[in-house]
Amino acid sequence: MIRIAIQSKGRLNEESTALLGEIGINVDDSKRKFLSRSDNFPLEVLYLRDDDIPQVVANGTAALGIVGLNEVEEKGFKVDIVKKLGFGGCRISLAIPKSEEYDGPAYFNGKRIATSYPAILRRYLDKEGIKAEIEVITGSVEIAPSAGIADAIFDIVSSGGTLVSNGLKEVEKVFFSEAVLISSGKLSAGEQAILDEMLFRIESALGSRKKKYLLMNLPQASVEQAVKILPAMRSPTIMPLAAEGWCSMHSVVDEKDLWEKIRQLKEIGAEGILVLNLDKIIP
Ligand code: ATP
Ligand code: MG
User: Is the pTM of this model over 0.90?
Assistant: First the structure.
């Protein structure tokens, strides 16, 4: 049995639960529960505020956790980053009123900066040799300048929309974050074996997200060129069609290359191209 701490509600809750589902682990997701056990995998889920996750993992209350890298960095507890999970992406940036002129980090000398991330900000200011005052606020940091609490803010940004609607502009992107799987680094042999199985499944699930399954009809004469366009895991699958001189070719491609590959395949006569999502890839 292994215990994992995830956010009970908020931006990371849904995708954390979805990831467990994607790797075939059932958990009772009725949010009123504080602790719930999977009925098909030796995993127990502890639902917490994200602020508390680094600490419960560091002290071993939960062997594993899913939390934003920003919280891990801010809290400073000793945990291992086992895997970046590819969701919850955001950055922590310095922002100032949009009417202000900005000429580099020295701007912040003598300024008051509101933030919920004082440790990350302090490290940045020290590195840049800037003397500024840090005002710690836990919610609605973005209103601090207009409320006269601070001259600038250091806060989480994903699209930047919140900044704009508060009359602010982002001037320094300081820390980049995403959700990560963390571990206490003190797992028993049994727990390590469970973690290894989870990681194997997570990698298959994440690996398949950026790939597409492609199938098409292809003139037999174009097979050689098509194999060059589509190097698959081993090599593409080719099956004869009832129509003479044609075959069906199947392969897996990176999503980023999809449209370029389709263009090349059409040029060599591919027809009836189907693009399918992949669920898992087990190499
Ligand atoms: P809790 O009640 O658990 O303490 P919270 O209010 O501190 O929740 P959320 O707003 O749910 O936190 O955000 C959780 C995490 O989601 C952040 O720490 C960050 O890693 C990530 N995140 C991604 N995009 C954003 C965003 N636009 N704003 C805030 N957090 C974001
Ligand atoms: Mg929080």
Answer: no
